[in-house]
Write a structure and sequence with these properties.
The complex is a heterodimer.
Chain A: H1 2-5, E1 10-13, H2 21-28, E2 33-35, H3 39-51, E3 55-61, H4 62-67, H5 69-75, E4 83-90, H6 104-110, E5 114-115, H7 120-137, E6 141-146, H8 147-150, E7 152-154, H9 160-164, H10 178-181, H11 185-209, E8 213-215, E9 218-226, H12 229-236, E10 240-245, E11 247-249, H13 253-261, E12 265-269, H14 275-282, H15 301-309, H16 331-341, H17 372-383, H18 386-389, E13 393-397, H19 398-404, H20 406-414, E14 421-427, H21 456-463, E15 467-471, H22 477-489, E16 493-499, H23 506-519
Parallel strand pairs in A: 1-2, 1-3, 3-4, 4-6, 5-6, 9-10, 9-12, 13-14, 14-16, 15-16
Antiparallel strand pairs in A: 5-11, 8-10
Chain B: E1 5-12, H1 17-30, E2 34-40, E3 49-57, E4 70-75, H2 81-84, E5 88-96, H3 111-120, H4 127-137, H5 143-154, H6 157-167
Parallel strand pairs in B: 1-4, 4-5
Antiparallel strand pairs in B: 1-3, 2-3
Helix pairs in contact in B: 1-4, 3-5
Classes of the chains: A alpha/beta, B alpha/beta.
């Protein structure tokens, strides 16, 4: 909504819990939104939009920013004409992620101003602020969210004055400006100096009028908090004085210093890494931090109470719920049955099919990051003794393959292993795990309209893979297993595309295709 | 400041846990109180556990109900009761699917809404507000079945008992 009100002309991103809904909502509100093949491309498109004088919103989950880190670090040196906001949706506690990295570290490392909303109201307000800051200082701004801010709903009062305070963007245009946009060393050196100078200015601004809030309370206990941790603090310690930081890079150190000086005990409550604690201590402010055990997992009101009490006794274990499982009738089931029967060594990847690691299949051996299946598979093939190497099958989903599997395929052609290799692309026609998003392999846009389509078998053949097979794994499971066996026995590269629409998506896919038929 | 009312709704993916919590939050919102809801559903589409917290009152901070502080625990799938039992506070009320005769529902997918009917007897919101919120949050073709389910829940034995207790 804020993106819409602030005149964002293009939203790009790659789906990932808990960030997925942002672009989908933006599109429903009438904004222009696109899924990119991956976060790096999404950010690069956003940079182009901002270089053209327009406004861009780029969304991703925390690990997505690792993929987009390359453009992020250097674009901070450049000068934007429009505005660019990068949303990083972190997942402390790993509700649906492979790690719980704290992306506030990226703001510090790349030198990108950062805002941290604590509820839906602030998600709206801070997005407007972020656009404003980005447009004013011609820098990208990181909007760092967490699961509980993304997946909660709180009352939002729309105050259009926030949006009105942002000057309307000029019509898109291009001006040559080599020293600000071409980061060859000769131009990048002064650009880095310029960045640090701008950040120093923003730090002063943040100290004076930044989006930070003081909740007056007792002088005996002062708490510094940001993001959703602020809400837990207010509930756990209703009488404490609280300094709530809305902009956490660059930090408003003078406000923090003054706050700490006025209370007897000053403690920082933050989820994840001790980012604010380190920032405060670096500035010479004496603050207390949380105990190491609270670095892991999410915080909540009870845990904040424990931190304040210094209580590190074992926390009550939560009864674990029913774990997710591959749906009955899921096409991935037939695939894992075959791989288990053939006793394969399976470097896997990220998606619903990651569930193949759990009983009854227990047929996936590795999971690291998006696209890793192919490279890891090759590494195993290069190093294992021949009788084991021959059993390695890389398993990757369709959306994940487009995201970062294609370069793996190139590596396979360029540095093949002696025993050959088998890549199994599980093409269920959708980004199933995150809730059925489109991707370049479906040939439909974020809004499900027809567009260009990447055909995996054509791509593999064009790269020089000679054994390319397309098969429906559910039609005839024996035939599928035989095919995998044949490929394993061939000391050559094979790409097998196991194509069958996700059961949950079949109906929608049919509906989209029907609509597209009618419009054409 | 008075403590907010805490409701935890739990079940399995596909049972309408999130829909039920959306409806409840909407009722509270339409009745003019502060309300927050949170949900955990990263992998729920794969049939895993889903739960959603709704809190409302004069002012709400955390969007999650602290453990052991739920006033009402609404559970759609019987096997999810032990998983969520720790949420319920002392004197808290468990509202579970067994309180509803599934066969009496026009659409057995409306257990979530029927349980909201039971819950409605415990809360101060008007029936009109519930009906409007149900209509706002469901497609028109499901209105009839869900309004019936809501009434069935509201008029169930336990719910009526609760109503007469309040009258006393």
């Amino acid at each position: 909504m804020a993106a819409f009100d602030a005149g964002v002309t293009l939203g790009t991103g790659y789906p990932g819990t808990p960030s997925t809904e942002i672009l989908e909502t933006f599109e429903k509100l009438g904004g222009r939104a696109q899924w990119s093949p991956n976060e790096k491309v999404a950010l690069e498109v956003g940079i182009g939009v901002a270089f053209a004088g327009a406004r861009a919103l780029v969304t991703m989950k925390h690990v997505g920013l690792n993929v987009a880190a390359d453009p992020l670090f250097t674009m901070a040196y450049t000068r934007l004409d429009g505005a660019l906001v990068v949303v990083s949706a972190d997942d402390p506690g790993m509700a649906s992620s492979q790690n719980e990295q704290d992306n506030r570290r990226y703001a510090l490392a790349a030198g990108v101003p950062m805002l941290e909303p604590s509820d839906s109201q602030e998600a709206y307000e801070f997005t407007l602020r972020a656009i404003q800051i980005s447009a004013r200082w011609q820098l990208p701004v990181l909007l760092r969210m967490t699961t509980r801010v993304c997946h909660s709903k709180t009352i939002v009062r729309f105050d259009r004055s926030g949006a009105a305070a942002i000057p309307s963007p000029r019509p898109p245009h291009f001006e040559h400006d080599f020293p600000s946009r071409v980061m060859i060393p000769a131009y990048a050196r002064p650009a880095h100096l310029r960045l640090r100078k701008t950040l120093a200015e923003i730090a002063v601004w943040n100290d004076e009028v930044g989006p930070n809030e003081l909740v007056a309370g007792s002088a005996s206990l002062g708490i510094i908090a940001s993001g959703v941790a602020f809400q837990y603090v207010r509930e756990a310690a209703p009488n404490a004085s609280v300094l709530k930081l809305g902009m956490t890079y660059p930090l408003p150190v003078e406000r923090m210093r003054a706050f700490a000086a006025n209370v007897e005990r000053c403690i920082v409550i933050e989820e994840g890494d001790p980012y604010l604690v380190e920032g405060a201590r670096t500035a010479g402010i004496a603050v207390e931090g949380k105990q190491e055990s609270f670095r892991f997992g999410e915080l909540n009101t009870s845990r904040v109470r424990r931190i304040l009490e210094g209580n590190t006794s074992p926390e009550p274990k939560r009864v674990s719920g029913k774990p997710p499982a591959l749906c009955p009738g899921c096409p991935h089931r037939s695939v894992y049955t075959a791989l288990k029967n053939l006793n394969c060594i399976v470097p896997g990847d990220i998606g619903c099919y990651s569930l193949g690691v759990l009983p009854p299949f227990e047929a996936m051996d590795t999971l690291v990051c998006m696209g890793a299946a192919i490279g890891v598979g090759l590494g195993l093939r290069h190093s294992l003794p021949p009788e084991e190497a021959r059993r390695v099958v890389s398993v990757i989903g369709d959306s994940t393959f487009v995201h970062s599997g294609i370069t793996g395929l190139v590596e396979m052609i360029y540095n093949p292993s002696e025993s050959g290799h088998v890549v199994l692309i599980l093409d269920n026609g959708t980004t199933a795990m995150t809730g059925m998003q489109e991707h370049p392999g479906t040939g439909r846009t974020l809004a499900h309209a027809r567009t260009g389509k990447v055909v995996f078998e054509d791509l593999a053949r064009s790269l020089g893979v000679r054994n390319v097979h397309v098969i429906d794994p559910t039609q005839n499971s024996e035939k599928f297993q035989e095919l995998i066996q044949t490929c394993l026995d061939t000391p050559e590269l094979s790409v097998v595309i196991a194509r069958r629409d996700c059961l949950l998506a079949t109906r929608s896919i049919r509906e989209y295709e029907r609509c597209n038929e009618q419009t054409n | 400041m008075s403590r907010p009312t805490n409701v935890v709704i739990a079940g399995l993916g596909g049972q309408g846990v999130l829909k039920a919590s959306d409806i409840l939050a909407d009722v509270a919102f339409s009745e003019g109180v502060d309300v927050k809801k949170s949900e955990l559903h990263g992998m729920s589409q794969r049939g895993g556990s889903v739960s959603s917290d709704v809190r409302f009152g004069e002012r709400v901070f955390s969007p999650m109900v602290p453990e052991g502080e739920a006033d009402y625990l609404v559970v759609i799938a019987p096997d999810q009761i032990p998983v969520n039992a720790a949420a319920l506070g002392q004197g808290g009320v468990l509202i579970e699917a067994s309180q509803i005769d599934e066969a009496s529902l026009p659409n057995k997918k409306s257990v979530n809404v029927a349980l909201l009917g039971v819950l409605s007897r415990h809360l101060q919101f008007s029936v009109d507000a519930w009906v409007s919120a149900l209509k706002r949050n469901l497609p028109e073709k499901l209105h009839e079945a869900n309004l019936q389910a809501f009434s069935i829940g509201r008029d169930s034995e336990q719910a009526k008992e609760r109503a007469s207790e309040q009258e006393r």
